[in-house]
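Quick one:
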Amino acid sequence: MIAKFAASLFSRSLISPSNTSIGKVAMSTASKQYKTLKLTVPKPFVYHVELNRPDKLNAFNRDLWTEIEDCFTSLNSDEDCRVVVVSAAGKLFTAGLDFTSMIELGQRLANQEDVARRCKILNELIVEFQDSMSSLEKCVKPVMCLIHNACIGAGLNLITAADIRYCTDDAYFSVKEVDIGLAADIGVLQRLPRVVGSASLVNELAFTARKLDAMEAKECGLVNRLYTNKENMVKEALDVAEEIASKSPVAVQGTKRSLVYSRDHSVQEGLNHIVSSSSLVDHYLVYVQFVVDVICPWFYCRAHHFFQFLISERF
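Output:
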């Protein structure tokens, strides 16, 4: 009896996700509390992340940058999450950069006399912000962004790292950095050309900081659906997310990995990548079957003899 229990426990510890660290992450992600984000689960396996600084027009401060990366890193490992929907509370999606963060950065740099150290601080901060935006792309779960009204600067960096984008009729977009004397450096210049497929349009937007309205955004492929209001957009997006969540998560996540990889590589490299990925899955399945068919029975046998030995020694 004890030997059977030991073998069963060993088998579950290897095979059942609920006994792994990933399973423990899954149980805690939905209950996480953030200062600048609101995280809910409106449908099974569908997580809804809202930018939640409506009084500050959802402007990106240091907390928001940090919490976005933390949130998507957690969701990436959360097996209860299969799709992520991103929207924003309040009257607009985001006004872009919170300039209080720039003031704080200026003060931090001013306190550092050494030029090399100033550069190091600035470089580390840029990489931190880049990682925050890239966390959407690195998350193996499909990410949908729902934009209403303004999506400026950092917001455009965020949504171009997503997989699916919808917006309302009143939405508009702007690569705003050039207007404040900066070159956009956290992802939009790298991702937007791949999203819309027109270097000329991207160059115009980046050089002029002009607004791209909802209709033009749909025509160029930045978004693929328009809605008259935010409520309808969120409702339909959650329905789409629910449909995606009903599919095999292994298939969906494998598809996203292949799409992201193929975007930055040649067709042949993409084909080679998916063959390699399929081979790894096959090897893993063989390993799991080996554990079930060989390792667990072997452990059961050893445990049985061990407990028999204990019993004979004791009695």
